[in-house]
Amino acid sequence: MDDDIDARYEVPRTAEFIRGRAYTRVALQFPDEMLRDAAAVARALRRELGGGDGGGVKLFVMADTAYNSCCVDEVGASHIDAQCVVHYGHACMSPTSNLPSFFVFGRTPLDTNVCGCSLLECSRESDKRILVLYGLEYAHALDDLKAVVAELYKSHSCGEVQYADVLCSVMSPSSAAEREQGQSNGSTHSNDLSIQSDGVATFVNNCCNVEGSTRKYSLGGLTWSTSIDDNMEDYLLYWIGQDNSAFVNIVLTFNKCDIVRYDTVANQPSRDVSHLMKILRRRYYLVEKAKDANIIGILVGTLGVAGYLHIIEQMKDLIKAAGKKSYTLVMGRPNSAKLANFPECEVFVYVSCAQTALLDSKDFLAPVITPFEAVLAFSRGREWTGEYLLDFKDLITTDKPEISSTTEEARFSFIKGGYVEDNCLEENEKQSETSLALAEVTEKALSIKNQNNDAVLYQGRAKSAIDYLKARSYRGLTGEYEGPAPDSVLTGRTGRAAGYNSEKTETTQ
């Protein structure tokens, strides 16, 4: 049992990483499906580090992450002042903000012989080169798969096969200066990352990087290179793994490519990705709905992915430039009940890692879109070119959208039904009067609509957050409450769960 734990969870390599960097407080982050092995892994790691006391290293097991289990939970790790996080299981490999991380992807079984034969068959049927992508949990079997395919190719004449590599297993947070430098260029082909001499990836910006005569890609923890003369559409993408968030990220990002998924459970290939194309169509339907929204909620879905504060500020500027209002909401993992507390928000923008960015909002009162979809919805003249971006790092720029003003620029005329140039002060004044008249008509229409609604929210007309707050029957313990007052209000404990203030006081006495 111990040998199995050591192999599956790479205990010796993890211990070497901790010793090499002299960490003394280490957080072990487990997803729900691996939590049953957490105690055994901690014991094995403590034994490997130096016996019962773990060589002076304190290990803390983390579960029930603050946001998504695929991301490094820097919030949870900060509660115990951890110096690094060892992340187990499926990982999105989003860059961290403050803590270094060590990744143990696991070793999910893969029948390399059957998979190699399937890969050979796809190579025969297609006239395109094949790019093999895979879930990180199958990275351990890549060398065996290459050997099987090379042996099969000796007796068969087939096309070229290229394999993606794992980006890294150790990640250090990029410094503020490096992130600022990466954000300043605002180019979609800026440096995505640089690999230091110790194998640590320093992330800067975007997933495609042109280096001389090659084009380097990095997505979901995988990296591969192509010739600058080649496009991704020239390759057949062969995905090894399950139909999960990592696969959705690949399909939507490269939605013009031919894609085959090898099901590792059924041991057979599948070319049907139509259900994901339906998702893509629905996402653009939500973009059209978002264009009509006036109040937008910005949902913070991560507190650890590098650049999340920058993209939140960028979304605020974008929404303000579009003449709309925005509220920033931090609530952990969003659900329909939580979002129902903010009925004034007509659409939500979800800022999270790429593999959890797509929320199914069918059961929500308002649609939830990604930052990329927000750019499409709230940027004037922006049209979809077929690309789809899930990683918000691809959107980071330092250029603020220009807010509508009386300067000489093209703007929409409701009288002429199109964009016109403001050439003189008189035209500006006419447009201001037209905009004011339009606002009054819109306000009157909303008032009529709200009068026909029985919900408590629509008592009168609500134009701002304070108006919505006044329309609610319950406004918190410090506000007015229409109904029987609570008998008493109990003050809860203060401090951390590891040692509340009252417990510390009792101990000292």
Automatic annotation (TrEMBL):
It holds the Pfam family Diphthamide_syn. One of its GO terms (cellular component) is cytosol. Its cofactor is [4Fe-4S] cluster. It comes from the Eukaryota. Residues 480-509 are annotated as: Disordered. Keywords: Iron, Iron-sulfur, Metal-binding. One of its GO terms (molecular function) is metal ion binding. The keyword Iron applies. Pathway: Protein modification; peptidyl-diphthamide biosynthesis. One of its GO terms (biological process) is protein histidyl modification to diphthamide. InterPro entries: DHP2, DPH1/DPH2, DPH1/DPH2_1, DPH1/DPH2_3. Required for the first step of diphthamide biosynthesis, a post-translational modification of histidine which occurs in elongation factor 2. DPH1 and DPH2 transfer a 3-amino-3-carboxypropyl (ACP) group from S-adenosyl-L-methionine (SAM) to a histidine residue, the reaction is assisted by a reduction system comprising DPH3 and a NADH-dependent reductase. Facilitates the reduction of the catalytic iron-sulfur cluster found in the DPH1 subunit. Belongs to the DPH1/DPH2 family. DPH2 subfamily. This is 2-(3-amino-3-carboxypropyl)histidine synthase subunit 2. It comes from Oryza punctata. The lineage of its organism: Eukaryota, Viridiplantae, Streptophyta, Embryophyta, Tracheophyta.
